[in-house]
Amino acid sequence: MQLILHSFDLLLKHTFTIAHDSRDVQPTLIVELRDGGLSGLGEATTNSYYGITLESMTGALEGVREITERYDWGSPEDLWELVHPFLKDNPFAQCALDVAAHDLFAKRSGLPLYRQWGLSTGRIPATNYTIGIDTVGKMVEKLEEFPWPLYKIKLGTDHDLEIVRELRKHTAAAFRIDANCAWTADEAIANSGPLKELGVEFIEQPLPAADTAGMRKVFEHSALPVIADESCIIESDVAGCQGLFHGINIKLTKCGGLTPAGRMIREARSLGLKTMVGCMTESSVGIAAIGHLLPLLDYVDMDGNLLIANDPATGVEFDAAGRFIYNDLPGTGAVLKQGI
User: What CATH number belongs to 120-336?
Assistant: First the structure.
């Protein structure tokens, strides 16, 4: 077994701005687990908000190289448990390793990952396409440049309703709103009614994660469902979302990979919460992994590869309805391009 690390600068098609960040380039780390003629791939991007760098991920993974390469782990879940004591402070690194292990393990069986898990893809949710914060005119241009049946609109400005009203003039597509912690409880409640009338499905993380009293108020009075993001990062956060949110958005990089994400999905469903998985502007390596969780989800945000201009991998395509197309290759279906 070989642990191989590949780093890339993903070039964004447009400057991507949310309430607390703006970027044109997204550094990412792709982990390869090579075993004979088979390779498993996983990915995690850097993230300044969470203090994750290429150097921190690389250093963390070098610290578990011997365990990964020498220990005869029997499943991805076994490996996750073995390395977790060493990677618990860097879930992004653990995510990349865990996804690579799942990819490799499924390739050993010759099955697509969802089939190895015993899942059916007969009914899967469509992904949204994200419109980052910009001038209203630029946001309209982004929308018209990429016709799509479902959009996530990033908000957190002093003219949020104006943005949505203007975008609605240019498409009949469904909208989702992500305020990235930028609103107060009163703002979220006041905005929810007009947003519902404008064809918005739900509001994602309107308040800062620490404002539980405010979220309880929003949960009780919002005209729209509210979905947790920053309030639900790791497994222990799921139970606390009951009574504050109608659902949770799980990020593989934040929770540590497919292994804990599966547990979070099961727990959320047992609590009556809607389930969603989101992305972090990964390439097709990270996005393909999300595709295999779709049969377990109510919503998904897996448009990362659509936002970049130099995807180093293949394996992610969508149909006209925004649904993931399974290529039925063994594993996740992601393949690094030749020469990468």
Answer: 3.20.20.120
